[in-house]
# Entry
Amino acid sequence: MKCRHCATELQHVFLDLGFAPPSNAYLTAAKLRAPETTYPLKLFVCNECWLVQTEDYAEAGDLFSSDYAYFSSTSKSWLDHSARYVEMITERLGLTKDSFVIEIASNDGYLLKNFVEKGVPCLGVEPTHSTADAAEKLGVPVLREFFGVETAGSLVSQGKTADLICGNNVYAHVPDINDFTRGLKTALKKNGTITLEFPHLMRLIEQNQFDTVYHEHFSYLSLMAVQRIFKAGGLRIWDVEELPTHGGSLRIYGCHEEDERATSGSVEKILDRETSAGLGNLSTYKNFQSKADKVKDDFVAFLIEQKRAGKTVAAYGAAAKGNTLLNYGGVKCDLLAFVCDAAPSKQDKFMPGSHLPILKPSALSELKPDFVVILPWNIAPEVKQQQKQIADWGGQFVTAVPQLTVMRP
# Structure
């Protein structure tokens, strides 16, 4: 197995979570009776370019299918984040009706609808039909393809080069990160800007966020790795921001390598912090497995303790990160009664691997569990506010990452 970016032979394991089904492969009742496909979930780190990456078994087409169940608009906090981004970037770049914006992995139109409202021409590139259908209903034009050099070349041949190419939480999802990066360069106007947001590997390690590891995430990114990938693709990172989203993310600003814009001091600042955090040292990566195991062990011990005490534990948020935690811990319906989720696309289905039933949020008030585990811990404040009624029967919230925490509403 070789590094996806620099082709160095991969010899160093970062994390081994055993076998699991794809985290967004939610099951219907009929599929519960059929065999379920699982894949190894194992990460390696490249000691040459420091890209952390999955061991490849699943194809992108198998992971991002036509009935893909993740809809970005389900989270209000994410919608608010995206709206603020559009306001900021429109002003910063001076985007107008004469500009052109491309969003890669535009999902259900959660972000581009803001550009549509502003009258800024835009195009979403989105391979999953379920989310593309939702985006088109909002007036967002969508190209239903995976993005790379070939797709970018087709856009260029149609005269569609972008003043802004944005991608939120897609860079980690692409199996060929070099082809994707060359596609960015191909589709970008001479003085255009690229913004990409992705979970920051440094935060993943610091906060024990092993549950953000799943098959749909082919790569786990530091600024030092992305800077190298961009340079190889003829691009340059000229600014970077730290964001609180997804437990700590980076938003990088890219341009053509020959662009005259000066590189912000924030780039060097974050690179220095990554070095200080040991992201250029193999021991940092080799020590992570034990930290992930402690989070998992503490969570499972909590569930067993509550079962013995006669308490009922349910969960909120049928998120991919929740599936990673549940499947690594071997959690089934005997320890966790059900999961609630606000997304209609997930309701009345079952979690992959654990087969927990996914119910409407109203089930919490009907069934009154003693504890509610918030699986998408990155939006815990939002969930606690929305479901604060659990205090009426003495219910308590629980998060497992970065350490087990029990909270009253």
Observations:
- Residues 63-69 have pLDDT under 50 and may be disordered.
- The longest helix spans residues 288-308.
- The chain is about 35% helix and 20% strand.
- The two ends are 47 Å apart (CA to CA).
